[in-house]
Write a structure and sequence with these properties.
Heat Shock Protein 90, 2 domains, 44% helix
């Protein structure tokens, strides 16, 4: 049986000062400090949204009427973290909250990002907009459904419960859309997708590839990669063209990949090229030689003429 550790547990209404106190307790907790940086940031964001939800939207009963108080708990197990919260709400708002949560739970990450951008820029009632944005952030950060329920209590109120699970080994993905001068980047461990493709001559090469290098450094040192150490992954380079400045950063990335292989990660590198593009083939061979990293050279299938 896995051992569980409670990072935080609090019952009662909260205000801004109480939230600050609880968040500081979390930051000081040794188990929280031991989390990978990405996981810790995601957990912190979810906890903030839960606490602010309690502060903003908890309904209070009339004087002398006793109802269940708000609460929040964060429990860490071997492979996951469970965030649970509850607070009384006006019964008339349960339909709206159910609609928002059901919508958020069924949307893809891309759709959630688009909805977030739409909501944050629109004019709407603060309560509707704020609650919706908070749920979107919780879903995006956790990567899992928000489990929720409502139980009728006194004075026209319902008790709203939420539970969110966060994988301790989740690793963020990096997706950059292709342009006429920069390649498409899809680095998504959850989908086993690692591709950089297209033309590479971005105006700010250092910034563009700096983000990729930073991502891969996080990835190879993350608990996710350690947990999946026996799993083989393939990184695909499929360039139409890259300039000399891009080549320097690609070589740096290849050296990082070589270091990860030396450290035990099971990584293959596929270098794609067209049949008549001997320059691209030779560039791959040179990159492989300098980085001391074996490449698999893959002849790209010719696209049919239109």
């Amino acid at each position: 049986m896995s051992e569980s550790v409670t990072i935080i547990e609090n019952t009662g209404f909260v205000d801004h000062n109480k939230i600050n106190t609880l968040l500081q307790l979390i930051k000081d907790d040794r188990h929280f400090k031991g989390l990978h940086r990405t996981t810790g940031k995601r957990l912190y964001a979810i906890i903030v949204e839960c606490l602010e939800n309690i502060e903003r939207y908890s309904a209070r009963a009339k004087s002398g009427v006793i109802i269940p108080e708000p609460y929040i708990s964060v429990v860490m197990e071997d492979d996951k973290i469970t965030i649970s919260s509850g607070n009384p709400v006006d019964r008339g708002k349960t339909c709206m909250l159910t609609m928002i949560l059901n919508r958020v739970n069924t949307m893809t990450d891309n759709d959630l990002v688009a909805l977030y951008e739409k909501n944050i820029n629109r004019e709407s009632l603060p309560e509707e907009n704020g609650a919706g944005l908070g749920f979107i952030i919780m879903k995006l950060k956790s990567g899992s459904r928000i489990v929720f329920s409502f139980t009728d209590i006194k004075e026209g109120l319902s008790y709203f419960k939420m539970q969110i699970s966060l994988n301790k080994y989740i690793m963020r993905k990096l997706v950059i859309e292709k342009t006429s001068f920069s390649p498409e980047v899809k680095l998504d461990p959850e989908k086993d997708l690692f591709v950089i493709s297209g033309e590479s001559r971005p105006p700010d090469v250092a910034n563009f590839y700096g983000e990729i290098l930073k991502w891969f450094d996080d990835f190879r040192h993350s608990p996710y990669s350690m947990k999946e150490a026996d799993k083989s992954i393939a990184i695909n380079f499929d360039f139409e063209y890259f300039n000399s400045t891009s080549a320097k950063y690609l070589l740096d990335l290849c050296k990082q990949i070589a270091a990860a292989r030396s450290g035990g990660m099971n990584i293959a590198v596929n270098w794609h090229y067209e049949e008549n593009d001997l320059d691209m083939l030779e560039a791959g061979r040179e990159m492989s030689r300098i980085a001391r990293l074996p490449f698999e050279f893959i002849l790209r299938a010719n696209e049919p003429e239109i």
